[in-house]
Design goal:
about 35% helix, Glutaredoxin, seven-stranded mixed beta sheet, 7 helices, single chain, two-stranded antiparallel ribbon, alpha+beta, about 200 residues
């Protein structure tokens, strides 16, 4: 009887937690890219903006982290989809908005070390005071926002399903959205539920 009660309590807590982290938030689909021209420090040492990162077919913005376990567990997927975006003439900007960790693992120097270790060939930008995350309504890492050539948001959410087990991925949501956008088709799945670490705004 006691074991059943404990199991029911754990299930209830899991359900509540899942709802909280899965509930989609952020910019409504169709929104214009916010803070497009805001100058941010890139790991290259230069100052860049999301508008500068944009390419012919649009822009992929992803909120990232140096230490988030979910980001680290999905790093191969992150690199794969970012390269796929670039191959399709879509710019890529990963944004680090963890202002609360600037004195430790989320410092700019740590960002540079991490980007080099992961062989990033795209922008990795420091979001001071989390102003970009606030403008996007971004809540976690990783969280993805795909914009078309007109800076309109066409997809928001996860890279794909099964973030905890790459071997069990069945839907590559962001990959599908990129294909549909580049082909000029309607995005069939415009918003999905992302799971990850909370952005530490400080």
């Amino acid at each position: 009887m006691r074991k059943e009660m404990v199991a029911e309590m754990l299930l209830a807590l899991f359900s509540l937690f899942s709802f909280q982290i899965n509930n989609p938030v952020g910019l409504p689909i169709g929104s214009v890219l916010p803070k497009a021209g805001l100058a941010m420090q890139d790991v290259s040492g230069k100052t860049s903006s999301m508008q500068q990162a944009k390419r012919q077919n649009g822009l992929l913005v992803m909120f990232g982290s140096n230490v988030c376990p979910v980001v680290q567990a999905n790093q191969s997927r992150i690199k794969e989809i970012c390269q796929y975006a670039l191959d399709n003439k879509i710019g890529v900007a990963i944004i680090n908005s963890n202002e609360g960790g600037r004195n430790t693992e989320e410092s700019f120097e740590s960002m540079r070390v991490y980007a080099k270790a992961q062989s990033y060939s795209w922008f990795y930008l420091l979001d001071r005071k989390s102003v970009v995350a606030d403008a996007f309504g971004a809540a976690r890492t990783p969280e993805c926002f795909l914009f078309d050539m007109n800076n309109k948001l066409v997809y928001h959410g996860a890279i794909g399903d099964s973030p905890g087990d790459i071997d069990n991925v069945r839907r590559h949501y962001l990959h599908e959205a990129i294909d549909e956008m580049v082909a000029g088709k309607n995005i069939l799945v415009k918003e999905t539920r992302s799971i990850g670490c909370s952005i530490f705004r400080g």
